[in-house]
Specification:
The structure holds two protein chains of two kinds. Chain A is α/β, with parallel strands linked by helices. Helix content of chain A is about 30%, strand content about 20%. Chain A contains ten helices and twelve strands. The longest helix of chain A has 18 residues. Chain A starts with 12 loop residues before the first strand and ends in a 5-residue tail after the last strand. In chain A, about 50% of the residues are buried. The longest helix of chain B has 18 residues. The radius of gyration of chain B is 20 Å and the shape is globular. Chain B starts with 8 loop residues before the first strand and ends in a 7-residue tail after the last strand. The chains are: A alpha/beta, B alpha/beta.
Amino acid sequence: MAGATAVGTKPLIRVEGLEKHFPAESHWFRRSDSFVHAVDGISFELARGESFGLVGESGCGKTTTGRLLVRLAEPTGGHVLFDDGEGASTDITTLRGDDLKAFRRKAQMIFQDPYESLNPRRTIFDTVAEPLKVQNACPPLERMERVSRMLEMVGLTPPATYLFRYPHELSGGQRQRVAIARALVIEPIFVVADEPTSMLDVSIRTGVMNLMESLAERLGISYLYITHDLAVARYMCSRIAVMYLGKIVEMGDTEAVLQNPQHPYTQALLSAVPIPDPTATRAPVRISGGVARPLDPPPRCRFYSRCPIADDFCRDNPHPPLEKKGAGQRVACYKA
Amino acid sequence: MPNRSSSAPVLTVEDLTMYYGTRSGDVQAVDGVSFAVGRGESVGLVGESGCGKSSIAMTLLKLLPENGRIVDGRILLDGTDLAPLSEDRMRTHRWNRIAMVFQAAMNSFNPVYTVGDQIIEALETHIETDPDVSMERVRELYDLVSLDPSFIGRYPHEYSGGMKQRAGIAMALACEPDLLIADEPTTALDVIVQDRILKELRNVQQKLNMSLIYISHDMAVIAEVSHTVGVMYAGRIVEWGETVDIFKNPMHPYTQTLMSAFPSVTGPKHELAMLGGEPPNLLNPPSGCRFHPRCPYATDICRTDEPPRVEGSGTHWAACWHPLEA
């Protein structure tokens, strides 16, 4: 897989068998004995300077994965090795106290909804300066300058006209620029972007996508880009992983996966995307049923119940491993 | 794209203007909109947030909030003007002749009644039937939208998002309306579910020869469901025409931007277009062409004078001083 680490040799992040199982029903006195397998043993690498996409439908575990990678959630298994290039790589799943705080300075998250993620009672300056304050990243007197510079970088110019405004005075696109500024102001090297453009209108969206791309180049940021929109992933990510019920079912170079999908789920997902051309016809979507809740899933391929090509072998064997197939991608399917 | 079977229009909207009154003045949400929908025809209204597409839907059904008022224009449903009708008179048309599927169908059901009971209630409010007949009708409706009839007696929380949206469509179809308005019915759904709902809608529309107004921000969905497209910007229709014409030869600069701003999963990877600036404030919309502050082709006349309607082939037109060459 990551023979394609374009920049540097060692990956920035190596995820090994990452797992997050939520107890299905919590009870005061009784431990839960059934679990939702939100993320169920996934492994991938993210190269330095790369933009890696996680795609899939609601409930596939992509957001949980993102939260685990910046330690906004605690994994129940597996490792996340983070190598900032300044020494040995650290397993962030065991970080505590000051070490965790130091990690947060290098890893940040951008959330989906700019209407929810900004505090309505705080000015833009307060919001963007907050990480600098918490991390004590610069002397207080320099905060104004750092924030102004950051606002300029995200295209909120001149910064002086935005510093003391409140979120409700800004449009959706401008709010998302503020959210990006807040995430980048302490100069992280890794950013998890969770559907950062899905709430924005198309004419605004392109600007935010371009901005995120140019900032990554300028500031040397690697993104984990989470999206349900394959077309957006195509423009933002060099490699993608398709998730289904907590598992990665296909992973590889974005163009390879989208032009020549191997897993039946990826194929269905792609043929369900409407084409903006009234004379085009799409291949029929061949899968049935809906996404189940990954509650104590049986030990077979997660996609078995909806798969158009599954047979007895798929029923009687464990979930298939990710194996190299096709042009530069890896696929978890016995039949592909 | 489905086939069309059109004749005299079911709905003719003439110069419709609707404002929301606020403390700071009137928000000119819909401004002089005119169009017609033929029988069995499917019209797509496309535009970004705040362009007035949902406001048009609410105006056609006269489900406006207290501060919304029709300032001018006519809404002719088979010749009857709905605009001046009282709420009592309107109730006889709403749902019977003109029905709606909402974006958040998941939330438009009451959680404490079964979905079946709610559809029966809608039926019995609008057409008198005895309970056995209503139940039979609900079964037919479930069949029509491919819902399992065993779910009739279940509560909304037992339905998935896609199933609730289907139930929403079933409820809207209960009284066999002549015109169905669907406002972003698949926006909150995953693509695979969206694909099924779109197919269902097209099937039902053809089977019942019903007219459809489909409202969406998504050009790709519009391309798949509509015969005719109206592109909206800042409360006005800026371009109108058959779907193929709009997509092959967009005449308005806004339509062109909207189409090339959409990333595509198949085909060549094109440069994504973007617009500078922000959508206008409709409390005080720009003079002349409302798109001029963001238009790359704008000249002095665009700032001062209302744009003329430029005709293309067939029903195709655009309101623009500098339409793009076909």
